[in-house]
Design brief:
CATH architecture of the largest domain: 3-Layer(aba) Sandwich
Radius of gyration: 20 Å
Protein name: Phosphate acyltransferase
Mean pLDDT: 88
GO cellular component, one term: cytoplasm
Family: Belongs to the PlsX family.
CATH class of the largest domain: Alpha Beta
InterPro entries: FA_synthesis, Phospholipid_synth_PlsX-like
CATH topology of the largest domain: Isopropylmalate Dehydrogenase
Shape: globular
Low-confidence stretches: 338-350
Distance between the termini: 30 Å
Strand order of the largest sheet: 3-2-1-4-11-10-5-6-9-7-8
Largest sheet: 11 strands, mixed
Oligomer: single chain
Order of helices and strands: EHEEHHEHEEHEHEHEHHHEEHH
Number of domains: 2
Catalytic activity: a fatty acyl-[ACP] + phosphate = an acyl phosphate + holo-[ACP]
Number of strands: 11
Length: 350
């Protein structure tokens, strides 16, 4: 049985969404158990033979400062859920709560793996090939050194190799051009480190990629700092929503567009499904001594269920052991970064 600890109080909607998603998840996964973490009143909506209530007395609000979540709310549903992973009661934790607080609490309780300075947030973005491109970091680390970017590439490779079939995943370094002479000094140095890792067999390094290559599916993994990654994520979601919303409005204009919509429905339905960001919900916090997954704060039941499924797949495919193995193999290249190991938490939550 795969056991997940779920912060049922986190996110914009709390139990009204998380409990509905948990019920649907349990119906689809007969080999899964859930530890539902929340207040006594918040957990009243779900009773199931494979669901256990774990009580917490506090809730981390979406606008709580990291200091408040980490130091003052020591019995929050978020913290109790992650504690289940630390104690070995669950193989992974899932929360839709405050991103900065989640990263801080997870790092405090679980600690980072040897050879990793900073955890990174990794998720998938749909691409033109019908699959998805994994991008990291997405907001945990605003300022990164070249060594950090190499660590992200190693962890991202472990994630993708664990969750998808096929050969060694390809890695691209996000830059303003494909040429090795382009980019900041940090990016140039990161390119050198990634090329060295490619030659040593630690990575399948493709080279520099540009922003549009994320959506073309040129590589399996794109590495960047958290500031750039978070902007790319929010921009992609905005564009997808605009296109889908625009199509729906356009086909309501008159009888002719309605007829066209009926004729083109199968194609339009497939397109909208592919662009639906809810299907890609669930970001992994990589580099910790335990599995933690972040859902969008605004997730509905479908999206939160996807986050649960990603955590389930990661646990079932031994993601943590794969990351450890990758990091250990690449240890000679993962020199400690020169900057102080204080994470630059993204102010925005999602």
């Amino acid at each position: 049985m795969i056991t997940l600890a779920v912060d049922c109080m986190g996110g914009d909607h709390g139990p009204s969404v998380t409990l509905a998603a948990c019920r649907r998840f349990l119906e689809q996964h007969s080999d899964a158990r859930l530890l539902l973490v929340g207040t006594a009143d918040g957990l009243k909506g779900l009773e199931h033979e494979r669901a256990t209530h774990v009580l917490a007395t506090e809730v981390v609000a979406m606008d709580d400062p990291v200091e408040v979540a980490l130091r003052r709310k020591k019995d929050s549903s978020m913290r109790v859920a992650i504690q289940q992973v630390k104690d070995g009661a669950a193989q992974a934790a899932v929360s839709a709560g405050n991103t900065g607080a989640l990263m801080a609490i997870a790092r405090y309780l679980l600690k980072t793996l040897d050879g990793i300075d900073r955890p990174a947030i990794a998720t998938q973005m749909p691409n033109a090939k019908g699959g998805a491109t994994t991008v990291l970091d997405l907001g945990a680390n605003v300022d990164c050194t070249a060594e950090h970017l190499l660590q992200f590439a190693v962890m991202g490779s472990a994630l993708v190799s664990a969750l998808q079939e096929g050969g060694e995943p390809s890695v691209g370094l996000l830059n303003i051009g494909e040429e090795v002479i382009k980019g900041s000094e940090v990016i140039k140095k990161a390119g050198e480190l990634l090329r060295t890792a490619g030659k040593s067999g630690d990575l399948n390094f493709y080279g520099n990629v540009e922003g549009n290559d994320i959506f073309k599916g040129v590589v399996d993994i794109v590495v960047c700092d958290g500031f750039v990654g978070n902007v790319a994520l929010k921009a992609s979601e905005g564009v997808a929503s605009m296109i889908v919303g625009g199509l729906k409005q356009e086909f309501k204009r008159n009888i002719f567009t309605k007829i066209a919509a009926i004729v083109a429905y199968p194609v339009l339905s497939a397109l909208m499904r592919r662009m639906d960001h809810r299907r890609y919900n669930g970001a992994a916090l990589l580099g910790l001594r335990g599995l933690v997954f972040k859902s969008h704060g605004s997730a509905d039941a479908l999206a939160f269920e996807q986050a649960l499924s990603r955590a389930y797949d990661a646990a079932r495919n031994n993601l943590l052991d794969r990351v450890r193995t990758r990091v250990a193999h690449a240890a000679p290249l993962l020199a400690p970064a020169e900057t102080p190991p204080v994470p630059g938490m993204a102010a925005a939550t999602h």
